[in-house]
User: Fold this.
Amino acid sequence: MLQCDYTTSQLDVLEAEAIHIMREVAAEFERPVLLFSGGKDSIVMLRIAEKAFWPAPIPFPLMHVDTGHNFSEVIDYRDRRAAELGARLVVASVQDSIDAGRVVEETGRRASRNRLQTTTLLDAIEEHEFDAVFGGARRDEEKARAKERVFSFRDEFGQWDPKNQRPELWNLYNAKIRKGEHIRVFPLSNWTELDVWDYIRREGIEIPSIYYAHTRKVFERDGMLLADHPVTNRGDDEPVFETVVRYRTVGDISCTGAVQSAAATVEEIITEIAATRITERGATRADDRSSEAAMEDRKREGYF
Amino acid sequence: MDILRFATAGSVDDGKSTLIGRLLYDSKAIFEDQLEAVERTSRDRGTEYTDLSLLTDGLRAEREQGITIDVAYRYFATPKRKFIIADTPGHIQYTRNMVTGASTADLAIVLIDARKGVLEQSRRHAFLTSLLRVPHLVLAVNKMDLVDYSQERFEEIREEFTAFAAKLNVTDLTFIPISALHGDNVVSRSENTPWYQGTSLLHHLENVHIASDRNLVDVRFPVQYVIRPHNATDPGLHDYRGYAGQVYGGVLKPGDEVLHLPSGLTSRISSIDTFDGPVTEAFPPMSVTIRLEDDIDISRGDMICRPNNKPQVAQEVEAMVCWMSEAAKLAPRTKLTIKHTTRTARALVRDLHYRLDVNTLHRDESASALSLNEIGRVSLRITQPMFVDDYARNRLTGGFILIDEATHSTVGAGMILESR
Assistant:
């Protein structure tokens, strides 16, 4: 970190900014929570939280909205990492929301629990009275995200109003809310996908194995490779084949596509991403393909 | 590799979106699926060319109305630097967005249409850049292809703008003749402007010296959070008491004598801690944890500085304020919440001295209130002392936000001029 001319590398600047944001939240909110899915962005966010409060433990719990359609490798990783840190992990279950009649499961071949997560998330925020919710979203991911604040205000219905956002100047964040409202906080707002991978490499952080190349039974749907699994509802017209793939993002099995890749190390993943010409969400997320404003609409409702 | 944050100001007509689109495209920051989506939309609308401005219009309302409403952040990198663009709309009704984007910028690009020359809005953009103390200003004279790459036209604009800029606080001003549409002088120098001896825009962005823009002289460490592990299993941590924060100015080293505000007590830094181990120096923008040799009662909102170099301890401040509320106005007797560094208090507007016309710089001393997007000089009285510097000396210890006590909206941005 130290150089005689007092310049700071881009990862150090981004890390310092994210630590500042986390400490600001810990200082100004009563009940923050960090959304931890075991995906690469939340993994980086968790490392930042470790650094921000060291040598004290992270002063807030972790929460995962579990659709029940997650990759088992990722769930194992999630539980292991939370245990290592001695952190309290709250699991909010979409299955429970379905069983309680809060949401109705989609039907058909393309049925996904992606959209149902929003209700589970908002119910959990209300139940636990969380007032600040850390998310790993980045502005480079998607164009609706490019205009989101670091401290993003949500009303008592969890809704985001993109036309009525609080101006955010310098490094001053407005944390004022009323009971029932909350703030979504995005410490990695200014990171790009490549920054996240560079940081994972620099820090030597372990990541779930599905990010690395592995052999998997897949089939093609809408130009994406989906895992052959009960929740993807593979039809007879969708032939299964075995190939070497890896996952560029980690989401639900039902809507997250794999990419053909031989990248078996973080270095190889970085080389691959630096050369790629397709965004991570465009390559691998069926949920963003439904319309041009798919993300904006889901975010308005209270999505991550 | 370091980071350059820059703001762009201008309207779609100035070719701002085309310029950003070109920077992103030529640096390979635009991906095929994004370009395909834009091409598809352009086709659906019957536009003959690929409308690169669609790349930067994120929200449905913006696409429907063909305008940019909000600040959008874009990212690209070259082997030399990572860039963060704060893309701000240029119209006067979005002054607050430009102020927001400029608040964190190292550099601002103001676009001028070579055919139209220096317009009212160009002057406004330059003034806001100067008000927010963005250290570097680039005047990109765009659409040079439409004036036959005329050196004479470029020089005319340069002279006119230079004369105007003399009235502002602009320390580094660079003029670049470009054509965003054709790429002249954007990424590489153009053969169409042999009379131009300067560098391309991207070359300038990659090489402009920003390391000296930070204040490395005045030590300012606002305490953000107190770290006390209370760890029962590790006796070594039982008495640990660290002051976490980000360095806002100066260079701190273990052994340095420091002064604590508001107590006025002095102590020495015993160590500067990070998760990755202790460090021998801390400087902006590092986030660290400081431990002191003496037990002083220190909490969030306090300031650690040097005994012979302190910020002003002020309850009365003079500031330029940009008002950002659509609903409320700022007038004498208005009560607000103020957030400055890590300290939050209440503020009372004692006086509004004048409203500044952001186009002409005329001071209207008869103004009785500030409305949305208006800028004026105010006196504030604050319920507790703040540790402030002139904004010109340090943007982080000189800037503050004002929050409406009823709606909790951020309604104002302030820059401290002097304090008592």
User: Anything to note?
Assistant: Chain B has three domains: 2-212, 221-305, 312-419. The radius of gyration of chain B is 24 Å. The first helix of chain B runs from residue 16 to 26.
